[in-house]
Amino acid sequence: MISSCLRQLCLVAAVAAPICAQAAAPEDDDPWPGLVQDIFQGRPMEDGSRLIVLEAPNRAEDAAVVPVTLRTTLPPGDARYPMSMTLVIDHNPAPMAARFEFGRDSTITALSTRVRVNAYTDVHAVLELSDGKLYVTKKYVKASGGCSAPAAKDAEAAKKRLGQLRFRQFATPPDPQASRTREAQLIIGHPNNSGLQMDQLTHLYIPPSFVNEVRIWRNDEMMLSMEGGISISEDPNIRFTYVAGDEDRIRVEAKDTDGRVFKGEWPSEQPGP
Amino acid sequence: MRILRKFALVLALASLAGRAPSSAGSADALTPLPVTEVAPGTFVFEGAVSLMTRENEGAIANLGFVVGRDAVAVIDSGGSVLEGMRLRAAIRGKTAKPIRYVINTHAHPDHIFGDAAFLQDGAAFVGHQNLPQALAVRGPFYLDAFRPILGDELMRDVKLAPPTQLVQGSAELDLGGRRLTLQTWPTAHTDSDLTVLDQSTGTLFAGDLVFVEHIPIVDGSIRGFLASIDQLAGTEARRVVPGHGPVSAWPEALAGERRYLDQLARDVRALIARGERLETAAQTAAASERSRWKLFEEYNARNATAAFSELEWE
């Protein structure tokens, strides 16, 4: 009781004078303007709420695995096409989670990935269209509660999966027969170690090692590429919606910061091995 | 301005003192944790089935201690140093024998944040061989994440003590005419799970490998969890002290947890096979278990998320 009254008192006082400046710091300290400088060289941002949808849970249920979906919603007949999408998790140690680049004929309209969320944070999605402008939208995500941490759950198992590629495809409802729209999912087995954890007590140090580049071709055309950082979850996962052609072949090449290269190739419309 | 802040501090301390004295006080002045002697010389504090909060001082996990002829072993230290100090006060209310071991059943904050209360005893801190790594990776995050939840007062003295005695497989601790058998487990609830069997009374301290009433939490591997509890079920014991929930008969206590984990795995596998998304699993998997557990809303979506990203590799 007393402490909640006191908090209210602080709140009132904070409006009058910055007496509780420390307690209010998280809200005041908005990293976004600085991130626009650092990541986008201060380029102007247009309101993207009609062009891009950012789906993320209100609360990060599992801090290590938070699903995020980005959809472009260009109106029919709009001649512009998406060039890139950038996903920024403002309060993470490495805010730029991923930058996706689209090929001219990628036909991709939605993509999903999974990220780590360390703290209460705004998540921004920035769409770059062929008109050369940036369009931004954002969503606030609460940090997970309890003992969830943005850390490996089973480091040994993750190590064993290193380098394995999984590729699956799903016909999308409601009318998979009539439509050639497909969802494809790529998973790259990789611990994606952040390298941020050092322990003064045990002197254990986990060196950074993460997937920093993924390229996906359809036949010989670059379809989608991702420049990734340590905010991407263990076993980087990209799921995207596209329009399948006749006898497409999907080819993937991923690289990590240790210089390892992982490759795979699958026929479109058939599940991978 | 400064006066007001001081005033606030005094009030905060006063309100804390109303429930229990500040952790800065001596052990004598602390309200001991209420403990139950579940078997001769084997004591248990039953934590609240709740999330950790400032109000409950982080005291949500079950803690225990076993008194031998020569010494005492503590099993988990609680979710704040204040709780650890109150556990220590409870021990001192029962025996003056030295506290020789503090055993951590895994790396979660509600089990280890009280460790610093026992630094003064020169006790050995005992844990799974993976515990140092788990603390290295998660510790700094936990310290940051729980400050706004528990508040500066409860967090101030929290130190993540490095384990000084590591266990791989099984080990025995001798308290003088009384043996504790420690067993480490492959990744299950977490990747640093360790159980303690008090041989002389048949009391199994299962840590968070066993949940009763409180929804089980998967922060390691759902497959490993299911495999480990199948093996754990073979332990000869009379009763189990779960990590959360009431002391229960053994091995009957495992039934609810096994049913939940089986259902979750089954639902998640079906969703993966149909090409559903992780988000869908978080919202729908194990829904049939909703009414059977406390804190279902707080943890089920998270369990489904963890299970999905693990089972996707099958």
Note the main attributes of this structure.
heterodimer, A: 273 residues, mainly beta, Immunoglobulin-like, nine-stranded mixed beta sheet, six-stranded antiparallel beta sheet, 4 helices, 15 strands, globular, disordered N terminus, B: 314 residues, alpha/beta, Metallo-beta-lactamase, Chain A, 2 domains, seven-stranded mixed beta sheet, six-stranded mixed beta sheet, 9 helices, 36% helix, 20% strand
Query: How many DSSP helices of chain B?
Result: 9
Write the element-wise H/E pattern of chain A from the N-terminal end onward: HHHEEEEEEEEHEEEEEEE
Q: Give me the CATH superfamily of chain A.
A: SoxY domain
Sheet with the most strands, sense and barrel status of chain B: 7 strands, mixed
CATH class of the largest domain in chain B: Alpha Beta
- How helical, in percent, are the residues of chain B? 25-40%
In CATH, the architecture of the largest domain in chain B is 4-Layer Sandwich
Beta content of chain B: 15-25%
* Shape field of chain B: globular
Pfam families (chain A): SoxY, SoxZ
Keywords (chain A): Signal
Signal peptide (chain A): 1-23
Domain Sulphur oxidation protein SoxZ (chain A): 177-265
